[in-house]
Design a protein that fits this description.
The protein is of the alpha+beta class and about 170 residues long. It has 3 helices and 13 strands. The protein has helices at about 20-30, 75-90, 110-120, and strands at about 5-10, 15-20, 40-45, 55, 60, 65-70, 70-75, 90-100, 130-135, 145-150, 150-155, 155-160, 170-174. Strands 5-3-8-9-10-11-13 form a 7-stranded mixed beta sheet. A 4-stranded mixed beta sheet has the order 4-2-1-12. A two-stranded antiparallel ribbon has the order 6-7. A hairpin with a 3-residue loop joins strand 10 and strand 11 (about 150-155). It is globular, with a radius of gyration of 15 Å. The N and C termini lie far apart (about 30 Å).
């Protein structure tokens, strides 16, 4: 399914997020398929974050200060610098992505806390922070999408056809 665009919907949201095949391939190229693979992270950008269909127009990889198989510390000044550069190009940061070493991943408590902190900090600029976790399984199963609204982390449902969903939409308490 790497040649298909994936479309996700958050419960109660009037918008969907489109993850084009090219961006999906970029994300999956960082999956931790080997025992020695380290966690990788990056940011997601869109040219039109306020539209009915929010398309992921760019996926980046962020430099890590420290990275292990199950965690990493990012270079915060590099994150801010990257966001400024992309904003000058008309792209807005939607949120973060990172890898997990299992086939189908779910957010750890650290992930939930990080998403909550960033969602609360950016609440003036946007309604939620997109949070993608890349597992080792092929898409769509290996791609998990959530949005944190500053209060709760919501799992996005993968739409197979307009109006139908493949995954259930549930909130994970923050």
């Amino acid at each position: 399914m790497n040649d298909c665009n994936l479309v996700y919907r958050i419960p109660g949201a009037s918008w969907t997020m489109e993850l084009p095949a090219e961006r999906l391939r970029t994300l999956q190229s960082h999956a931790q398929h080997r025992g020695w693979s380290k966690e990788t992270a990056g940011q997601l950008y869109s040219a039109a974050p306020g539209s009915d269909v929010v398309r992921v127009d760019a996926v980046t990889k962020l430099p890590a200060r420290v990275a292990t198989r199950t965690g990493l510390r990012l270079d915060i000044p590099a994150i801010a610098k990257e966001r400024e550069a992309f904003f000058e190009q008309g792209l807005h940061c939607l949120g973060f992505w990172h890898t997990h070493p299992e086939p189908v991943s779910s957010p750890s408590s650290d992930d939930i806390n990080l998403a909550a902190d960033h969602a609360k900090a950016g609440r003036v600029a946007f309604a939620g922070l997109v949070f993608v976790i890349v597992g080792t399984a092929s898409a769509p199963d290996g791609i998990g999408v959530w949005v944190h609204d500053g209060t709760a982390l919501w799992r996005a449902a993968l739409e197979m056809e307009p109006g139908t969903t493949r995954l259930s939409s549930t909130a994970i308490l923050s």
